[in-house]
Structure formats: C-alpha cells, structure tokens
Write the structure tokens for this entry.
Amino acid sequence: METLSVWRGTAASTGYAMLAGDVTADVLIIGGGITGVTLANLLAEQKTANKPRVVLLEAGEIGCATTGNSTGNLYETVSGGLREIASRWGADVARQVANERRGAVAFIEERCSLLPDVGFRRCPLVQWADAAHAEDIRKEFDALAAAGCAVQRGGAVPAPLPAAEGEVLVLQSQAQFQPQAYLVALARRAAEAGAAIHEHSRVIELDPKARRAVTATGSVTAKEIVMATHTPLGVHLVHTEMPVHREYAIALEWTADAPPGPGTFWWKGAEHLSVRTLEAGGRHFLVCAGQEHKVGIHNAKAGLMALEEQARKHFGGRPVTHRWSAQNYRGADALPYIGRDHSGCFIATGFATDGLTWGTVAARLIAAELLGHEASFAQLVRPGRLSPVKGARNILEENVLVVKQLVKDYLTHRQGEKLSELKAGDSAIVEAEGETFAAWRAPDGELFAVSNVCTHVGCKVHWNSVETTWDCPCHGSRFRPDGTVVEGPAIRPLKRKHAPPLGDGSATA
Ligand SMILES: Cc1cc2nc3c(=O)[nH]c(=O)nc-3n(C[C@H](O)[C@H](O)[C@H](O)COP(=O)(O)OP(=O)(O)OC[C@H]3O[C@@H](n4cnc5c(N)ncnc54)[C@H](O)[C@@H]3O)c2cc1C
Ligand code: FES
C-alpha cells in the first residue's frame, strides 16, 4: 500500500547535498524535523560575533519522518489533557506548560509572517466526547481554566462530526499550518543564514564523548551535538520510560464550503478521532487521524482500514487521496525530555502527539542554553529529572509488555509454511539451518532475508504490512526489508542473511 501524507504530497521539495568529507562545527544537529530545523534557524540567525557554525544532518529529506506526517495542529494544551499534568505536577506546572506552549505557537506565527504562505491560521480547538467520556471533558474544562487558558463552553459541534453527548469545550485562538511547507521554508532561511544542511546523510556511527558523527560519505566533529531525532540515537535511560505508538491519518477529497470549517476537532469516543480541513494548491481536503496502536505488535493494515471505516461512517464515501502514519513517544510523567542527558549530548523527545509545539519549545530551550542563558522552564523538562509522581504504572505496564514480547519471541515454537511458499508481497519469520530469518518477498519475486534481532538492544522485530518495514515493539526502531534503518534509536542495520535453499525453512507470518 502506498503511503504519502497530504503535507509531503503538496509541499515543495528540498534538495540539499549529501555531506561530503570531514568537517567541523560548533553545533551538530542530527535530524531535520521541526526540532532540528527550528534550532538551526535560531542559531544561524544569531547576529552576535560568536554566532555558532551549524551543521544539520538529515537521514532522509527534511520533514520525512514525523513532522511531515503529522496533522499540523498547534495548541497550548496537550492531547493527553492538561488535567494529567495538573494531577501529577500541580496547577502551577500546568500553567507553566500552557504558557510555554502558547509562547511557542506565537513564535511559529511570527516565523510564518517572514515566510512564504505556509497555511498558518488562527482557529479554535474544539473537544467533545460520547456519553462514556463526557466526564473527562468536564474535568478538562476545569484544568484548562485553572491553568489560565481562555476556555469556553461551546454549543453543538457542526455536522457531519460525531454529535456531542455532554459539554463541548472550545479553546479560542489556537492555530494550524502546513507542517511540511513550514519546515521547507524555515530550512531555506536557516541555510541562507549560514547553516550547512545535508540530506540523505544518516548518522551511522556516533561517538558522544569525542562529539563525532559519521555518515556513509563523511563525518562531523563538533563542540556540541543535538540529537533532534525524535528519540535519541543509541542507548539512553529515557527509552525505558517512553511507550511508543503509531497513529494513522488519511486525507479525503473535500469542498471549500463543506463544514466543519477552520478548527482542530478532537472527539473522544470508543475510538479517538482528530479532524481538520486543509486548502492546498486550490484543492480542499479533510484530514482525519486516529487508531493509535503500540508499535510492532499491531496489525497496521487493520488500523488504517479501521480509520477509513470510521471516516466513511461520519463523512460518507468521499475519495481518500492520501494515507500515512507516524510514531509518537510519550513521556512517562506527561512531560517531554529536553536538554543534555548522561551522554553529554542534547536530546529532545517524549513529545507524544504534541511535538510540533513541543519541538519548537525544545529548539528554543536548547538554543538558549547553547547561547549561554538557560530558561527556567528547562529545569522542569530536563532528562533524568525526579518527578513528584513518576508515571510508575505506565512504565511498569510498558516494561511488562516489552519483557513479555522478549519472552514470547524467544519461546514461541515457530511452525508454518515453507519459505518456498512465501508469495510475492508476503513476509514471515523463518527458521532454517539453525538460524532465524525475517524474510520478505518483493513483488518482483526477490527474497530479502535479515536477522530478526533489533540492533538497538535485542528485541525481535515484527512485520508492518502498511509501510513494508520490520518494526521493533521495544523502543520503536524500524527497518526496511533489506535491514537498513528507517527510524528509532537503532543506529546499525539488521544483519543481512543468506537465505537457505528454497524449501528448507519453516515460517510464521
Ligand atoms: C499521526 C500523528 C499526528 C500528529 N499531529 C500532531 C499535531 O497536529 N500537532 C502536534 O503538535 N504534534 C503532532 N504530532 C507529533 C509531532 O508530529 C512530532 O512530535 C514532531 O513532529 C516531532 O518532531 P521532531 O523534529 O522531534 O522529530 P521528526 O520530525 O521525526 O524529525 C527527526 C528527524 O531526524 C532524522 N533522523 C533520525 N535518525 C537520524 C540519523 N541517524 N541521522 C540523521 N538523521 C536522523 C529523521 O529522518 C527525521 O527527519 C503528531 C504525531 C503523529 C504520529
Ligand atoms: S528499539 Fe530498542 S530493542 Fe529494538
């Protein structure tokens, strides 16, 4: 199944050269999502004499991982609810979070005023629920009001959105943009201001102590390294604290005058649904996102199909123009991890599905620290913090899941069809000649066989039928059928294996 987000499908492309040779820099930023590009922009546009020399290395193309596969909504609250932050950390921290995020949205608005049109618009965020979740909305209203957010009770939500069975909560003056268009334009400004940006330059070796990163075509040695990679590369304590989920999104053909009009619409029912509209290149779209699942232990095709079914139920049989999905990492105590960690590098992660704003917050905090004036909010989100009420239950539940996954993988007796029976487009875990293979047969018949042991810390990978990747349930690393890394903390590829003679292996899908 082909997947391409409406954002990547409608934004201009980039075209930065690969890194060539060995270079030095003051700051190396790894990752060209909203965190990395915003940071590059902030540092490169410094007018001071000690303006840092910045190099940004992006594994694929600018925006290709999460930012260009998001839903483009900007808001001062968080999708898990400000009440969760208030209950863990207290009302004052919830207020600080809303203030910091409000400031980041205003910062994006100010940057957008300097860029070509990237679809920025102010609009309300509307939240409502079915009867079973109506109490959550009522409590959220109280938490938002206590945090100083300008929240109001609204009337009915416009059809064809699902009807409200309780209060409707309206947070005025939130925002939306075209995230990929924003990133492309912001990266251009950063490059014009002197940042050296390199695409198709994946870091394949990283030595945090020596502050050196190596790609297939060169290396960068820097005074500081910022891992703006959504989850930090290599082994970090935060990995054990962050559940990893994938969420799906689709765009439907829409019309200019069809409701719901401008706004971010979050419905909480048995299944969560996020809806917004978009105008791009004279075409109109309705974007729906939902069906969140734990990475590596779900049926991706079923998730996407369920979202399409949900959209059909509410919005009729409009043609689906784009399908995509992306990953999110949730901080265990409802806050992200931003700052220098034990590796000596800066990290920025744990954004849940709120990282267009958190990524901007992170870039501003890290830029401030690199330029010698740390902001007080940085203390609250620093990695390795001690939380007043740590998300112990979440961590425990997630770690039990991870351990179960390891045990299941090692103990499952695998039996099934012969490798020779693996059809074009099919995947299987195969045991043959004392070895285990993660095998996939391409549509043209070519067989790819790799180790099924994740190169991060050794969990077993599982097939993702929508994106044709091997996904790791433990900390979210993903690999192509040939073993190369797509995303996640793993740096090294899955080991290529020589397939046994056809017919020798037994397989399970
Ligand atoms: C379906 C979905 C919808 C969402 N919608 C919203 C929303 O409406 N609003 C909101 O605020 N948030 C939303 N989010 C969350 C938000 O999109 C992310 O938190 C945010 O984009 C993260 O930005 P980032 O720059 O940290 O990471 P990314 O955008 O993932 O950028 C990291 C970059 O690092 C690169 N990289 C990784 N490894 C290497 C390496 N070894 N070498 C070089 N480069 C490397 C990657 O290729 C990637 O481009 C959504 C998330 C999902 C899953
Ligand atoms: S991502 Fe950590 S073991 Fe696979």
